[in-house]
Specification:
- The chain is an alpha/beta fold.
- It has two domains: about 5-190, Vaccinia Virus protein VP39 (Rossmann fold, 3-Layer(aba) Sandwich), CATH 3.40.50.150; about 200-255, OB fold (Dihydrolipoamide Acetyltransferase, E2P) (Beta Barrel), CATH 2.40.50.
- About 30% of the residues lie in helices and about 35% in strands.
- It is built from six helices and 13 strands.
- The protein has helices at about 10-15, 25-35, 50-60, 90-100, 115-140, 155-165; strands at about 40-45, 65-70, 80, 100-105, 140-150, 165-170, 185-190, 200-205, 210, 215-220, 220-225, 235-240, 245-255.
- The strands form two sheets. The chain has a seven-stranded mixed beta sheet with strand order 3-2-1-4-5-7-6, sandwiched between helices. It has a six-stranded mixed beta sheet with strand order 8-12-13-11-10-9, with no helix packed on it.
- A hairpin with a 5-residue loop joins strand 9 (about 210) and strand 10 (about 215-220).
- Helix 2 packs parallel to helix 3 (about 50-60).
- It is elongated, with a radius of gyration of 21 Å.
- Bound molecules: S-adenosylmethionine.
- S-adenosylmethionine binds near residues 48, 69, 108, 109 and 127.
Length: about 260
């Protein structure tokens, strides 16, 4: 056994009956960001051997579905699926097991490491994108997402992709991550159900004035707050920060 496997968290996991030391990463992330709550329906991607599943079940007490390429030894109260998270058929299997929408999608999926930084980073980004795709399809509006990513030059683009879908996004390395590890966890809270996304451009007519004196344009029934705009004005706007119930936009051009 490698020496570094016998660290503090490794021994603690053995003592406390967790299948993997990574259990403590999920505990620490959840202590800080409170993504899994009592009753949450949780999907865990790349879940073998099952440390995160044990913690997710303790925290939620509700439906927990675990997916991995490898077989996961049965755990009480947890549905396990052997499948590839990059495949559509696996998503369908997870949806059937859930029988509804998920409150939280978590992914600790990691490729087999080749030792070549760029290759491992690219494979990790592929898995993180697959996890985001699944989260977008299975989460209820307002649901939360947690995903592991190996750092590298595609990380910032990936972070932007997550930011487009969630109202608040953080990147965090828990104390239980090994010092030498390139991993970082991205936490997305409050999946957006808005019909607009940050950076999009629209031509709109300002409908009304909000309480703060800014103009309000409606896009597919969704309120977009436009600074320095007056009712009746026809504008080309660029969407800025998007929240659950409204978005902000700036004026590009008066039409
Ligand atoms: C670090 S381990 C997960 C540890 C787990 N969170 C725990 O606490 O026990 C990463 C897992 O991702 C899985 N994995 C990698 N690629 C996958 C894929 N395409 N589909 C499903 N699982 C995958 C691996 O088989 C591996 O079990």
């Amino acid at each position: 056994m490698a020496r570094d496997q016998k660290d503090h968290y490794y021994r603690k996991a053995k003592e406390e009956g967790y299948r993997a030391r990574s259990a403590y990463k999920l505990k620490q992330i959840n202590d800080k960001f409170h993504i899994i709550r009592r009753g949450s329906r949780v999907v865990d991607l790349g879940a073998a051997p099952g440390g995160w599943l044990q913690v997710a079940r303790e925290l939620s007490g509700g439906i927990v579905v675990g997916v991995d390429l490898e077989r996961i030894e049965p755990l009480e109260g947890i549905v396990t699926i052997q499948g590839d998270i990059t495949k559509e058929e696996t998503l369908e299997q997870i949806a059937a097991a859930l029988g509804g929408q998920a409150d939280v999608v978590i992914s600790d999926a990691a490729p087999n490491l080749s030792g070549i930084w760029d290759v491992d980073h690219a494979r990790s980004i592929d898995l993180s994108r697959a996890a985001l795709r699944i989260a977008k399809r299975l989460l209820r509006p307002g649901g939360s997402f947690l995903v592991k990513v190996f750092q590298g030059d595609m990380f910032n683009d990936y972070l932007e992709e997550v930011k487009r879908e969630f109202s608040s996004v953080h990147a965090y390395t828990p104390p239980a991550s090994r010092k030498e590890s390139a991993e970082i966890y991205v936490i997305g809270k409050k999946l957006l159900s808005a019909p607009v996304r940050s950076g999009e451009i629209y031509d709109v007519t300002v409908d009304s004035v909000g309480r703060t004196g800014d103009g309000i344009a409606m896009i597919q029934g969704f309120a977009v707050i436009v600074k320095n705009a007056s009712p009746g004005e026809r504008l080309r706007i660029k969407i800025g920060p998007v929240k659950q119930r409204f978005a902000f936009a700036s004026i590009l051009e008066r039409l």
